[in-house]
């Protein structure tokens, strides 16, 4: 078993792209481009209001067509991740509305969405417990692990595709989503590889925030 | 006194049990509830099953029809799952269009189907690019008490094993489908993935097969699907973090549960075939 690709694709982001949103980002990972916006804390609807915490609402908009059941699945994954990283106890009876717009599908939409949401939350200034970095990897039909696959690799077919998200404190697993079957040893190897790659994404977040504030200071 | 404590501070009440490594219903932390499976109870369906995991009850009914395969996959049939959570199953479900819980459960099952984890969809093809079977699988939960995904997967597998389809042949010259309703055959090649749900608390406490109260109090939830020795899906939608050792422990627990459930499903299917 060899790893074909030991690093993730190029990461680019532009923060505060939307003038009205509290936090927004246009994020690209290779050819996958996603825009995320954060509005919050907002006044929550009475049905959704929670007495002790902030209610997190996520909307995922696909590029074409109406959001369907698949989009609901992605929304749930992002929502429960955000519930963990945002310090919701500090803003009870309010809501935060996160919107993810798919701009271009280059193969790893779920992990790009999670990374974009993390950057947008950083941009918005909401209090966070930790940051989150998501990485996708693919086990192709010859048992080779490919990190951060592009859409062509995905379309060629695979044995399994994993998306893992890690926190920035202890690099433990926050989110896991898999498609396909592999023996446990391959699963563990894929998880370790993604964990190492998450360090690159955390460094990128740091660089993005340094750049943003150095521009403001000028 | 205990009920007052439970209403006012549910998490504290629950923690008093966790400190003693036990739970309100008397189970140990990693013990699963009793699973009861019944196959073939719905006469009008092509295949059916009822599963009870503790109090969580899910009914699966499968209806087959014939359709033209899609242009991008001309040799594949279809399995269309749909998980319904009617308001009668839980006080938290309101009437109206399917809520988030039902849609995410449907998406979970649809992903298992799409990755050929339950059945190779090529076996449902009658004639490539002309005709294929479509199996509409309706999973209705009539009592929701945690671990919905576990019960849904067991119900779906058992119902699929219970399905009998009439033999259909395609006559190329006449361009007609000839259906023989007397010759019914079961589906072949149904795999047996088993899902186990665990809830996670801070301080690294892991609890298996949570009830709906335990799911609400938990800091995180994860559902692990295994099939014999292969890890199929680790569905962990956010929530509190897990380190490698905990992941390994959960996967080992799921494998233990999977062995028992597979044995149970095979017993039920054998006895339902004997009844026919």
From TrEMBL, chain A:
The keyword rRNA processing applies. It is found in: Nucleus. Pfam families: RNase_PH. Keywords: Exosome, Nucleus, rRNA processing. It comes from the Eukaryota. Residues 8-127 form the Exoribonuclease phosphorolytic domain. Belongs to the RNase PH family. This is Exoribonuclease phosphorolytic domain-containing protein.
Automatic annotation (TrEMBL), chain B:
It comes from the Eukaryota. It is found in: Cytoplasm; Nucleus, Nucleolus. The lineage of its organism: Eukaryota, Metazoa, Ecdysozoa, Arthropoda, Crustacea. Belongs to the RNase PH family. Residues 31-166, 192-253 form the Exoribonuclease phosphorolytic domain. It comes from Daphnia magna. This is Ribosomal RNA-processing protein 43. Keywords: Cytoplasm, Exosome, Nucleus, RNA-binding, rRNA processing. The keyword Metal-binding does not apply. GO terms for cellular component: cytoplasmic exosome (RNase complex); nuclear exosome (RNase complex); nucleolus.
């Amino acid at each position: 078993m060899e790893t074909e690709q030991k690093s993730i694709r190029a990461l680019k982001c532009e923060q505060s792209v939307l003038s009205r949103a509290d936090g927004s980002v246009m994020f690209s990972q290779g050819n996958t481009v996603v825009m995320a916006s954060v509005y919050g804390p907002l006044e929550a609807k009475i049905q959704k209001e929670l007495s002790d915490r902030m209610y997190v609402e996520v909307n995922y908009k696909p590029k074409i067509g109406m959001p369907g059941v698949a989009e609901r699945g992605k929304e749930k994954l992002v929502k429960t991740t955000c519930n963990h990283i945002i310090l919701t106890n500090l803003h009870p009876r309010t809501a935060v509305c996160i919107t993810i717009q798919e701009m271009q599908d280059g193969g790893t939409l779920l992990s790009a969405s999670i990374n974009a949401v993390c950057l947008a939350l950083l941009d918005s200034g909401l209090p966070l417990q930790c940051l989150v970095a998501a990485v996708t990897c693919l086990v192709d039909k010859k048992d080779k692990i490919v990190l951060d696959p592009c859409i062509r690799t995905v379309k060629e077919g695979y044995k399994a595709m994993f998306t893992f998200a890690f926190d920035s404190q202890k690099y433990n697993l926050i989110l896991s989503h898999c498609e396909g079957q592999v023996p446990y040893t391959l699963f563990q190897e894929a998880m370790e590889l993604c964990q190492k790659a998450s360090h690159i994404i955390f460094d990128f977040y740091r660089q993005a925030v340094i750049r943003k504030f150095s521009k403001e200071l000028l | 006194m205990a009920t007052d404590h439970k209403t006012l501070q549910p998490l504290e009440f629950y923690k008093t049990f966790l400190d003693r490594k036990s739970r309100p219903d008397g189970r140990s932390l990693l013990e699963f509830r009793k699973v009861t499976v019944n196959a073939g109870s719905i006469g009008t369906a092509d295949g059916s099953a009822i599963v009870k995991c503790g109090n969580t009850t899910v009914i699966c009914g499968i209806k087959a029809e014939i359709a033209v395969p899609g242009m991008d996959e001309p040799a594949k049939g279809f399995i269309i799952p749909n998980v319904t959570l009617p308001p009668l199953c839980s006080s938290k479900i309101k009437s109206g269009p399917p809520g988030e819980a039902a849609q995410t459960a449907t998406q979970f099952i649809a992903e298992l189907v799409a990755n050929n984890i339950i059945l190779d969809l090529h076996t449902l093809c009658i004639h490539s690019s002309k005709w294929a079977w479509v199996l509409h699988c309706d999973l209705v939960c009539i009592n929701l008490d945690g671990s919905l995904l576990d019960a849904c997967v067991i119900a779906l597998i058992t119902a699929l094993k219970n399905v009998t389809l009439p033999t259909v042949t395609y006559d190329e010259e006449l361009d007609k489908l000839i259906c023989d309703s007397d010759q019914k055959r079961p589906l072949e090649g149904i795999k047996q993935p088993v899902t186990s749900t665990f809830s996670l608390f801070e301080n690294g406490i892991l609890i298996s097969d949570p009830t709906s109260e335990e799911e609400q109090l938990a800091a995180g939830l994860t559902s692990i699907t295994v099939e014999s020795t292969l890890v199929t899906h680790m569905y962990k939608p956010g929530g509190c973090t897990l380190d490698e050792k905990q992941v390994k422990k959960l996967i080992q627990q799921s494998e233990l549960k999977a062995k028992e459930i597979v044995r149970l499903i095979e017993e039920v299917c054998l006895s339902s075939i004997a009844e026919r």
